[in-house]
Amino acid sequence: MKNYIKTLIVLCVCIVVSCKEDKMADKNAKQEAKKIEIDPKKKATKTEVGTANIHDIWILERIDNVAANEVFTNKEAPFLEVNTKTKRLMGTTGCYEYYSNLKLDGHKISLSEFVSMEKACNQELSIEKEFLNQLKQIDSFSVAPLKLIFSTKEKNILEFKKVD
Question: Which residues, 6+ apart, have CB-to-CB distance to 101 below 8 Å?
Answer without folding.
Answer: 87, 88, 89, 111, 112, 113
